[in-house]
Amino acid sequence: MTKxxxxxxxxxxxxxxxPSSATTRKSLHQNIFGKLRPLPFQYHWAVWYDKxxxxxxEAAAQDYDSRLYLLHEDVSDIATFYRxxxxxxxxxxxxxxxxxxxxxxxxxxxEDPENRNGGCWRFRVPxxxxxxxxxxxxxxxxxxxxxxxxxxxxxxxxGVSTSARFNSNLISVWNKLGDNERSIKALEQTILDxxxxxxxxxxxxxxxxxxxxxxxxDGFTEAVEKASTVT
Length: 231
Known about the structure:
Elements: H1 3-12, H2 19-24, H3 32-36, E1 45-50, H4 57-62, H5 64-67, E2 68-75, H6 78-85, E3 98-103, E4 119-126, H7 127-142, H8 147-150, E5 157-164, E6 168-175, H9 181-194, E7 209-213, H10 220-230
Antiparallel strand pairs: 1-2, 1-3, 3-5, 4-6, 4-7, 5-6
């Protein structure tokens, strides 16, 4: 267990961290909590729930707004995040349902103006590691650890998602510029570098993780056209 995980656990359960284990492991996320505790996040965040439907693709697209629920509209600091995170029934998330943590003002859909030209890194994470993996990428995202490496590319990390699958979770990190190869590569490397060693993917390719532009998804064009008509 890394120091950041020990800090996390002790936040909700002071007895969960032993002094010996805290001194024998080095954290990959040093100073994150030290930086965050006194200050609000640079950006405010919202938590969304996306309920899967078995309807046809066309019907699902038309009914998307009724499937997307705003759970918490303003996560502005680490204390608020843990009030939401620690009280969420993660074990109750149904198969193919998704939880998103996104910048406030950006909806977690391809057709949102901030997302249309973007894409995401997607990680297939085994069930026994999925919650820890999502927890870490969410903290790294909100703490601007990902954003810092994209500043010079004028790119933005807009959110993270976790979607329940049968024997794994599909965990995504969304960025704004899906055609900027330097930005995409920098985000990949930062995710891999900052994750705890035991959570890092052990392979490459579609069985482990991959990048996909939103425009490459079936239904993207229809969703954007519908959003343009509505607006």
